[in-house]
Write a structure and sequence with these properties.
Number of strands: 10
Shape: globular
Bound molecules: D-glutamic acid
C-alpha cells in the first residue's frame, strides 16, 4: 500500500466488534476533541468474545485494512478481545508489510500500566469476555509491567448480552453482576482493584458499584485509554501532524445502520447517523 501520509490528513480510526468501543471513543473525544474520528463496529459478526484466536485475528485485520483504506494513519482497537487476540500479530507481522508508518494501538497495555499504583494488596481482578480471560493477555501484560502482583481473570459471558438487549438496568443485571462479583471475590478475597476489561462493561457501572464491597476500586478503561492516547500524540509529533483537526466523527457498522444507531445512542448519550459498510 502506498503511503500517502505526507500529503493527506487523516481521521483516527477506532475499531470495535460492535458497540463497546463507543465507551472508549466517547472518553477519547472528551479529552482530545480536536481530531477527526472514524468509528467502525463489526456488529454483523459480533460478539467476538467467544470466538477463536484465528477468527478474531482475521476479522480485526480486515477491519484495520478497511480503516487504512479510508485514510486512517492511526487505528485504536477499542475492543479488549481484539486487543488480546489480534493486536500483537498485526503490529509484528502485518504492519511492517502493509505500511510501517501507520500505527495500531490497543486498550490492554494502557490499562495494565495504571493498576500498579492503584492496588494496595497487590491482588487484581479482571472482568472480561471469555476470550480475553482465556488469552491471559491482562495477566501477561501486568506481569511484564509490575512485579509481584496477583491477577485473577473472571469471564462474564452474560454481561454483553444483557447490555445489548437493553437489560442493563433490569433485575437480570442485578442477578448476574452480583453473582460474578461474588464468584471473583470468593476466589480471591484479597482483591482490592478490579479492571472492567471489556468495553461494554461501563454501562453496568451502577450495578457493579452497588454490589462491589466498599474499598474495592473499579477501573473503567475509557479515561485511561483517552489519557494514554493524548500522551502518545504528544510524544509522537510525526503521527500527530498527520491527523486532521475537524472535530468530527463518522460511524460505520457492518450491521444495519438503523439498528446500530438505535443502540449506539445508549452508549453515547446522543443520536448519531451511522453508515452501513461491508468488510
Ligand atoms: N467489545 C468487546 C471487548 O471489549 C466485547 C464484545 C464482544 O464480545 O464482541 O472485549
Amino acid at each position: 500500500m502506498k503511503n500517502e501520509s505526507c500529503t493527506a490528513k487523516s481521521p483516527i480510526g477506532v475499531f470495535d466488534s460492535g458497540f463497546g468501543g463507543l465507551t472508549i471513543l466517547k472518553e477519547i473525544r472528551r479529552v482530545i476533541p480536536q481530531y477527526d474520528y472514524l468509528y467502525l463496529g463489526d456488529n454483523a459478526r459480533a460478539p467476538y468474545g467467544s470466538r477463536s484466536f484465528d477468527i478474531v485475528y482475521r476479522f480485526t485485520l480486515e477491519a484495520v485494512r478497511y480503516l487504512f483504506g479510508q485514510g486512517c494513519e492511526l487505528v485504536i482497537l477499542a475492543c479488549n478481545t481484539a486487543s488480546a487476540k489480534a493486536l500483537r500479530s498485526i503490529q509484528q507481522n502485518d504492519l511492517p508489510k502493509i505500511d510501517p508508518n501507520r500505527r495500531v494501538l490497543g486498550v490492554i497495555r494502557p490499562t495494565a500500566e495504571c493498576v500498579g499504583s492503584m492496588t494496595t494488596t497487590g491482588h487484581i481482578g479482571i472482568f472480561a469476555t471469555p476470550g480475553t480471560v482465556q488469552s491471559q493477555s491482562y495477566d501477561m501484560e501486568i506481569g511484564k509491567l509490575h512485579h509481584g502482583l496477583t491477577t485473577v481473570g473472571h469471564a462474564c459471558p452474560m454481561w454483553v448480552p444483557l447490555i445489548e438487549n437493553k437489560e442493563s438496568e433490569g433485575d437480570g443485571a442485578d442477578y448476574f453482576v452480583k453473582k460474578d462479583i461474588d464468584q471473583l471475590l470468593h476466589h480471591d478475597g484479597a482483591i482490592d482493584t478490579v479492571i472492567l476489561g471489556c468495553t461494554h462493561y461501563p454501562l453496568l457501572l451502577p450495578k457493579i458499584e452497588k454490589y462491589m464491597p466498599e474499598g474495592v476500586k473499579i477501573i473503567a478503561q475509557g479515561p485511561i485509554v483517552a489519557a494514554s492516547l493524548a500522551n502518545y500524540l504528544e510524544r509522537h509529533s510525526e503521527m500527530e501532524q498527520r491527523l486532521s483537526l475537524g472535530g468530527g466523527c463518522r460511524y460505520l457498522t457492518t450491521e444495519s445502520a438503523e439498528k446500530f444507531g438505535d443502540l449506539a445512542s445508549i452508549f453515547l448519550g446522543e443520536a448519531i447517523h451511522p453508515e452501513h459498510i461491508d468488510l
